[in-house]
Amino acid sequence: MNKYTGIADYYDLLMTQGYYDYETQSDCLAELFKHGKSVLELGVGTGLLAEKLIQKLPDLEFVGMDFTPAMLKQARERLGESVNLVEQNVISMELEKTFDTIFSNGGVWYFIENSEDEYIFCSHLPNIGDNLNGLRRVASHLKKFGELIFSVQGVHRDYEQTLPQGLTYAQKITQLPDDCFDKCYIFSREGEVLNEQICKYRLFDEEEIRSILRDIGLEFKEITSCRQYHVYHKVCELS
Ligand SMILES: C[S@@+](CC[C@H](N)C(=O)[O-])C[C@H]1O[C@@H](n2cnc3c(N)ncnc32)[C@H](O)[C@@H]1O
Predict the structure, then answer these.
(1) With contact defined as beta carbons under 8 Å apart, do 106 and 151 qualify?
(2) Among 83, 164, 209, 210, whose Cα sits 20 to 30 Å from the Cα of 132?
(3) What is the tens place of the pLDDT at every residue in 62-109?
(4) Which atom number of ligand 1 is nearest to the Cα of residue 22?
């Protein structure tokens, strides 16, 4: 069972209490996608961002991908039957379609803003080979000059927060060797732990990830004016 299955039951409660600002993020993405594009979301989760994006751009040709059935089940309930959702792992993704834009909003990959203008790339895939395979699979699903977009979020830290329905969420970060860290998600009620998951992540410094992306034909283009997303674009096909 993958680690996100256990989190799925509590995911929406946590995310809608300020973990992500979906309103601002969807405004920013809607501005980028306003010219009617085909778009793939990597790690669509329960579809919270997708829902707002599709509301703002109903003509968008949207596909949501995720490898956790419990997350996709909620996305299906939220988004309805007409939205294209696929269960795949990015490491071996094969969709038989190319896209104008592929984006990851905390799903699989994202940037962490360390301080102003200093970013670290963060991956849900702790293994370097899996990252290379996944990014290659993504590049092969982009049209020429298509864009790959990563969200930006704050530094991971330990904290505890009260959620609706009498729940408490706590997260604990443990630094590991080789640029990895564990993030422990704990959901409890009245002191009783209902769910506890540890997910391992890998960090890459910005120059390292730019070089990895360059090697697969993706060049850095810009940080959006809303500062929420980093944009890369496909300048050549892989040989
Ligand atoms: C933090 S959630 C982000 C969900 C959504 N993008 C949002 O903004 O709410 C990360 C999602 O990425 C998915 N994910 C992680 N690794 C993945 C992989 N290797 N392939 C496909 N999906 C993956 C998880 O199942 C989870 O649903």
Answers:
(1) yes
(2) 83
(3) 999 999 999 999 999 999 999 999 999 999 999 999 999 999 999 999
(4) 8
